[in-house]
């Protein structure tokens, strides 16, 4: 694809979750929001190991796939991007009251970015709670970024994540700032749209609870590696 074709295809996609800079001045977003996404993505990226040479990487809840493509660029020999909720939204566009339809959210961004990068990243539509090593195998490094607080059953979800992790889990999540003042494992529950007006957000764990969940789910060691406002990055080792 030449630059004009790339720009045309990018413009056809109504909503990009990730900011991509494809070079030659071609970006997926402009202005303030683009700048925020870029900064946030760089912050998350800085919590992922720089060298992924010869590693297998699973990106759970990949959406547009920015972190999957980044893992490939960092030398990973195999990258599998999985998602379900947002990748299925296009199929649900016909339904009434589909909040995401108006956004235009779906899998289009992932597919176009993969084409532009000529990437070998694989994709698989699977719910977190269906993750199973017999279906997808196990991976040296697993990325679970921005997904945990969308889980109604967070500990069960982490057990599923643990079952497909061989070496290291990189977890990024929303945390409750208030409850993180306490050393005990505590959680805020969002029964409706209290967090960011999004009804798919359920939990705001504190730092201690995320670590406890990781150990309970079967990881040998769990550490907080970065913390900014109400977002935190943890590493957990098998
Ligand atoms: C806030 S986005 C995070 C996207 C990306 N990982 C990032 O950090 O930018 C949450 C993602 O989790 C996915 N997701 C939510 N619930 C899921 C589920 N039950 N199974 C699989 N993916 C899910 C959504 O479709 C969406 O892509």
Keywords for this entry:
8 helices, binds S-adenosylmethionine, Rossmann fold, two-stranded antiparallel sheet
* Elements, N to C (H/E): HEEHEHEHHEHEHEEEHEE
Number of domains: 1
Share of helix, binned: 25-40%
How many strands appear in the DSSP assignment? Answer: 11
Uncertain regions: pLDDT < 50 for 5+ in a row?
none
The fold-level CATH name is: Rossmann fold
Describe this structure in words.
The chain has a single domain, classed as 3-Layer(aba) Sandwich (Rossmann fold). The chain is built from eight helices and eleven strands. The protein has helices at residues 3-12, 31-45, 66-73, 99-103, 108-117, 133-136, 154-163, 207-216, and strands at 21-23, 26-27, 56-60, 78-83, 122-125, 139-145, 165-174, 187-189, 203-205, 221-228, 231-237. A seven-stranded mixed sheet has the order 5-4-3-6-7-11-10, with helices on both faces. Strand 10 and strand 11 form a beta hairpin. The relative contact order is 0.13. The mean pLDDT is 93. It binds S-adenosylmethionine (SAM).
Question: Would you summarize the structure shown here?
Answer:
The protein has 238 residues and is an alpha/beta fold. The protein has helices spanning 3-12, 31-45, 66-73, 99-103, 108-117, 133-136, 154-163, 207-216; strands at 21-23, 26-27, 56-60, 78-83, 122-125, 139-145, 165-174, 187-189, 203-205, 221-228, 231-237.
SSE map:
Elements lengths: L2 H10 L8 E3 L2 E2 L3 H15 L10 E5 L5 H8 L4 E6 L15 H5 L4 H10 L4 E4 L7 H4 L2 E7 L8 H10 L1 E10 L12 E3 L13 E3 L1 H10 L4 E8 L2 E7 L1
Parallel strand pairs: 3-4, 3-6, 4-5, 6-7
Antiparallel strand pairs: 1-2, 7-11, 8-9, 10-11
Bound molecules: S-adenosylmethionine (SAM).
The site of S-adenosylmethionine has 13 residues, from loops.
């Amino acid at each position: 694809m030449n630059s004009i074709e790339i720009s045309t295809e990018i413009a056809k996609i109504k909503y990009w979750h990730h900011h991509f800079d494809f070079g030659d001045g071609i970006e997926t977003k402009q202005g303030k929001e683009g700048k925020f996404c870029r900064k946030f993505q760089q912050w998350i990226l800085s919590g992922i190991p720089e060298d992924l040479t010869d590693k297998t990487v699973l990106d759970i809840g990949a959406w547009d796939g920015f972190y999957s493509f980044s893992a490939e660029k960092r030398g990973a020999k195999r990258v599998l991007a999985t998602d379900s909720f947002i990748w299925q939204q296009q199929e649900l566009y016909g339904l009434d009251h589909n909040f995401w339809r108006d956004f235009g959210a779906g899998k289009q961004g992932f597919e176009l970015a993969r084409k532009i990068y000529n990437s070998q990243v694989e994709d698989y539509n699977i719910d977190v709670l269906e993750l199973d090593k017999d279906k997808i195998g196990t991976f040296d490094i697993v990325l679970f970024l921005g997904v945990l607080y969308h889980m109604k059953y967070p500990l069960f979800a982490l057990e599923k994540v643990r079952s497909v992790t061989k070496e290291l889990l990189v977890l990024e999540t929303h945390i409750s700032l208030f409850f993180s003042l306490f050393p005990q494992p505590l959680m805020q529950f969002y029964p409706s749209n209290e967090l960011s007006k999004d009804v798919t957000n359920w939990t705001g764990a504190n730092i201690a609870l995320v670590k406890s969940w990781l150990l309970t789910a079967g990881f040998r060691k769990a550490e907080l590696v970065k913390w900014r406002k109400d977002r935190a990055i943890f590493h957990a080792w098998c």
